Amino acid sequence: MEPIKSIKVATQSPCPAFGGLRVLTRLEGFLPVLLGNHGCYYGLNFLAHFYAARKSIYAPLLNSIDFTDKNLQHNLMAALKQLIEEEKPEFVPVINLCVATTVGIDVDEMARQMPEIIPLRITGFGTRSHAEAKDVTLEGIFKKLKQNGDHKLREPKSIASIGEVFPSDSIAIEHLAEKLGLKYRAHVPSKDINDFRKALNVSTMACLHPFYTRSMRQFEEVGINHVTSAPVGAEGTYNWIKALAEKTDVDAQLAEKVAREERDAVQKILDGPLNLKGVKIVVAGYEGFEFSIARLLIEAGAKVTYVSTSIGKSPLCEPDITWLKEHGVQEIKFRKSAADDFVAIKKHQPDVSLAATDVAGMGKELGMVSVYFTNLIASRPMYLAHGAENVLELMHRLIATRPAVHNIRSFFQDFDMPRSLPVAEVDEHLCACCPGAKG
Amino acid sequence: MQMMRDVDMANGYWGALAVLAPMKGNHCIIIDGPIGCHYVPVDSALNYTDSIPYLQNVHATHIIESDVALDGTLHKLQKLCGELIDRYDQLFILSCQESEIISSEASMLEAEINGKRIWYMATRSLDTDDYTARDEVLHYLYQKVRPTFPAQPKKATDKPLVNIIGPTFGNFNSYADFAEIKRLITGIGAEVNVAFPFDCHIGDMVRLDDADANVLMYQEYGQKLANAMGKPAFQAPIGLRATEKFLLELSQALGLEESARAFIAQEKATTLQGFWDVWRSPHQDIFRTSSFGVYAHKTYAEGLTAFFKDELGFTCDMSGVKTDRWRTKNAMDIKASLLETPPTLFFGCINEKIYITENSLSTRFIPCAHPMPIVCRSTGTPYMGFAGAVYLIQIVSNELFDILYSHIHIEYSSDKAKRRSERDKARVEWEQQLLGQAVAREVRWSDEALKHMDVVLKKIPFFVRVSASKMLKVESEKLVKEQYRDTVTPDDIDVIFARFKR
């Protein structure tokens, strides 16, 4: 696929509203409502029922005639009112999608009239990625809770964490907090709205993923500070623990001791038999925390030449970006398009590509042991020594499947398979580790 | 205005995409829409409905805020078409809901440039559903696009020619059904002319009129094209009688009655042997004492209902056509009817699977419709035709065996030690009673519990009810004893019943 030159294409992302549904459908007592078109509803339900939660999503059927009806706002509110009366949910997040936003449906007005409603505006043209839509959603929830006065029981020396991480990772942070003498109160997003309430009453937030900029603003407004990045890799772990200790006034000596212990534990894994010396990896996800993974892989000895993400650059990314640049990453792409990744894997010819569905698929055609970032990387622990071990084990496991990948690839590649790279193009860009590769 | 739960049908844009994308040839699709309209149908949904990781020939305008507020998308489309016209022979611009609401003027880009063409497809996404659009796009391709392609010679064969109309992307199990329909057509001595649009080159459209008859894969769409062509048309069948009728009628239109009869006889001796043997074995008794429900699009809903009810003898608890939800106000509330009469087996999509799970129904779910993340790429799993009858009788048999499996007695490894000590304790108690050293502790059944037992038993398939009732009674009493109570309550029965589902 040749990249488009004539127009600037948007960031690769599923419909951003899916990011919102990831958070909202998992919350108990929440009844999510979409306002848009049935094409949107179908696609978003499809994704949400498979990748978010087994929960019903409600939506009104709106045709073009409805959009010209001056009573539309009123009719929608009546329908929502009836739904709330019937189902008695605790909260009703109402997401204004593209068409409803374009015609000016006022979700804020709905929320003013019905206290259950959390107004959200998530559009394909305005919200830039599904990761950032999670931020918009959390911002909406925190705003609502603050309006309800759920932020007034501030507890000193307590923390909460934010970011969709593997459950054992949040437990790892909890243990770490204990070692530092801190109280770990909650992790969000979660299935329990009380966790969000707890988060609004801690003294410091650990912002584990670098796209929660709006949510961090909500915390700043009530005087809660935050640390960015995550305890990933040896150096990352050390720096993160020190930064957290500083924000929470932990005794400097204790912090230094804990930080060193944890760093050394990670370093032992990185230097051990699971190291990745001589392995070339491309990290091309769209989840928004590709930097952490790239850091870990580099510390383990891998050569990471290209890192791309769908999120935009923000101060929350700074520590990771500086580090990656210092450690030989040639290309770091924010707001990447799918074509950027296609071009990159052909150019860099990595042994392993961690990428979105389309690029992961193409990677296999080119003989790489590529995997879908979302399913394989985003769904496993990566923090501290345990996380490092887990991620490195996966890389070795993938590399071990190289003969199987070549076995199947070469079976098919004496023939131009439909809707795939032609054989000539594969030959041109075949991964260096494949038998018969040019490089 | 009504709130719909779990919308299960997409819009016109999705329909147009499902029709245009499968065709081979040097054409591309330009989506005039925001990022979500590009990646949700193309990268996400297609990955689950058809297991295709990416489509190379799909491009998009990726509408951003300034396009909505100020500029519209025409300038982007102009640039895109200008660039893509060098790479492709045919460019199809698809409108989608957002470009329609900002009134994109893309229709003015329709043009012919040095034999290459730009087409604008107004998919009417704000108003139409997926299937209406598939119907219209198939018709549009035939009426408007086909005449612009150069003529091709008729397929060199002395056999009658048959088109298959309607296999597209995004249909449940369509790869296997399509293979079976092809097998049936060639089986009676005809030949497939154009399988439109799923298995043809875009230029093959010009040969559509060469056919002697059309077979329509689905009742949901394709009829508009079939009517315009004016040839004898036949719907793809589900079930034995429907398939027989289909073959006889199709062969009559083609003058192949004799070979069709021979084919049916041959099928009975080959493909359908398995059906006959399963049917006459004791499995059949299970069918005739169990119930099913189906909620799918018309072809599958009606086909499966006729097959399971009229041919296998199942009781039909519910049969609903999904599309009705869009076209009539009296559509079935599928969640309510599932809760009212949970059938033994239910055929549906992921929405109903969720209702069954969240309400802890004992109903077994079998997929038969999208939306549903399920890989159906093997051609050996048809629901249509004779091969479909064999496959369907096989999957329901196995599902019923699995129900049996979950009800027959099991000694859980984790419980063994506990059960042993319970037995020992019970033995001592019993011996002491006989020796007059202790008073027997009787467990009583409240009237409500007895009534509830009947209610619960009705939820259990008839063929395992005897063993289930025994287990319910013994286990409920045990539970009561464990908790030092003396009366079984309806709640106790529910607790035990929930364990059956393991």
Could you provide a short overview of the structure?
The complex is a heterodimer of chains A (439) and B (502). With 439 residues, chain A is of the alpha/beta class. Chain A is built from 20 helices and 13 strands.
Give me some keywords for this one.
heterodimer; A: Rossmann fold; Rossmann fold; 4-stranded parallel β-sheet; flat; B: 502 residues; alpha/beta; 5-stranded mixed β-sheet; elongated; oxidoreductase activity (chain A); photosynthesis (chain A); Nase/OxRdtase_comp1 (chain A); oxidoreductase (chain A); LIPOR_BchN/ChlN (chain A)
Tell me about this structure.
The complex is a heterodimer of chains A (439) and B (502). By secondary structure, chain A is of the alpha/beta class. Chain A contains 20 helices and 13 strands. Chain B is an alpha/beta fold and 502 residues long. Chain B has four domains: 12-128, Rossmann fold, CATH 3.40.50; 161-270, Nitrogenase molybdenum iron protein domain (Rossmann fold); 276-406, Nitrogenase molybdenum iron protein domain (Rossmann fold); 413-500, Proto-chlorophyllide reductase 57 kD subunit B (Helicase, Ruva Protein, domain 3). Chain B has helices at 12-20, 35-49, 65-71, 74-84, 97-101, 130-145, 174-187, 223-229, 240-254, 257-269, 273-280, 283-287, 298-311, 324-327, 334-340, 350-358, 385-407, 416-434, 447-458, 465-482, 490-499, and strands at 3-5, 27-32, 58-60, 90-95, 111-113, 116-121, 161-165, 191-196, 213-216, 233-235, 291-296, 315-321, 345-348, 364-367, 444-445, 487-488. In chain B, the strands form four sheets. A five-stranded mixed β-sheet of chain B has the order 3-2-4-6-5, with helices on both faces. A four-stranded parallel β-sheet of chain B has the order 8-7-9-10, sandwiched between helices. In chain B, strands 12-11-13-14 form a four-stranded parallel β-sheet, sandwiched between helices. In chain B, strand 2, helix 2 and strand 3 form a beta-alpha-beta unit. In chain B, helix 6 (130-145) runs parallel beside helix 8. The mean pLDDT of chain B is 93. At the A-B interface, helix 1, helix 2, strand 2, helix 3 and helix 4 of A face strand 1, helix 1, helix 2, helix 3 and helix 4 of B. Strand 2 (58-60) of chain A pairs antiparallel with strand 1 of chain B.
